[in-house]
Amino acid sequence: MRKVTPITEHFQHFVANISESLWGDVYGKTREAWKKFLDAESLRARDRYCGAGWYERAPEPEREYRNGFYERDYTTILGPMRLRVARSRGKGFLPKALNAFQRRTEGVTELIREAFLRGISTRQVGRVIASATGEAVSAQTVSTVTQSLNGAVKRFKQARLRDDWVYLFLDGVSLRVRRPFGRQRVQMLVAYGVRADGSRQLLAFQRSKGESQSAWEGLLEDLYRRGLQGKKLLLIVTDGCPGLAAAIQTVYPEAKHQRCWVHKMRNLLEKVRKADHEGVKKAAQAIYLADNLTEARAAFQRFQRDWAPYYPRMVRRLEKDLPELLTFFEFPRHLWKKLRTTNAIERCFVEVRRRTRPMVCFVNVESVDRILYSIFNRFNDQWKNRTLRLFTQAA
């Protein structure tokens, strides 16, 4: 068998140097060619603007004069360059390749915006851009660039909704925002819808101070105003917030209400001793894992018999909430697992927390809206051609 000689460290350095030299030369030559093209195009555009070339006289009423050049720093994906921009005496001319006051290509602007939306802080974005283009940008510049998303956020919140949503999932996520009087928690209320054909969409989000009835009514009334009148709405799944339950009765009183079992299990286990966790958990799970509504009620009776002597208040609370916890049994069996929790929307919140964790605290509430819009818009784009097959199966 032929012996393979290992690659030496010297040879690895040689390959690395050749690669760096080759690509560095390619980028350098490309940047130089691009600069020459833009400089030349600036001259040609000014001649067309003035109506005459060199040593030619334009008609007197429309006459405009050349007025030398000025230099402008311009950042590109290939690195910074200094352009020689032609100008006119009347200062009304600007080459089409450049917008007024533009200091970077649209590609670099998009890179800044995308880096911020990926969860990188405004200060760190500048370092990322510097490594890619050789030109650092300030945190203020990053903030200015990302403000261009405000229009997209407004359009998202005002978009008309079709009244064909069958299932609605509602929940909230808490984020920290820096305010003049210190850091404060801001609640983002979110609506996620599923149609009968399994298509899904994040429909709305709204900023609030908490999850009161009035706050949730604001979100639901916004959905109603935008077109979701609830004529086909069969079920609304929530985390169990009392204010939300009351808001549903105000805006969508005909829709059935299902409380999330994940949230309920968490509440139950918070009220029992650690030694009883496993027993309470198994007994409570027997309720929602039952084969039908009758068996679920029987499972609750066993739960009540076994644990009421030790935790009477907890058991009474569960008994009161039981009707809304068992609503999912009225729907097709294959949907039970999907409809008894708000896990569908919680998965979106996992991405929200992952993106926002490096930021620690938002500078203002508008930046919260921009981040959530970008995350939700990305999810909606991914879901356009991907349906939830369970919802299309026959009962």
Description:
With 395 residues, the protein is an alpha/beta fold. The chain has two domains: 66-94 and 101-148, no CATH class; 153-392. The protein is 49% helix and 17% strand. It is built from 14 helices and seven strands. The strands form two sheets. The chain has a five-stranded mixed beta sheet with strand order 5-4-3-6-7, with helices on both faces. Helix 5 packs across helix 14 (365-383), helix 8 (261-270) runs antiparallel to helix 9 (277-288) and helix 13 packs across helix 14 (365-383). 25% of the residues are buried. The model has no long low-confidence stretch (mean pLDDT 79).
State the main characteristics:
14 helices; two-stranded antiparallel sheet; 17% strand
In short:
The protein has about 400 residues and is α/β, with parallel strands linked by helices. The protein has helices spanning about 10-50, 105-115, 120-135, 140-145, 150-160, 215-225, 240-250, 260-270, 275-290, 295-305, 310-325, 335-340, 345-355, 365-385, and strands spanning about 65-75, 80-90, 165-180, 180-195, 200-210, 235-240, 255-260.
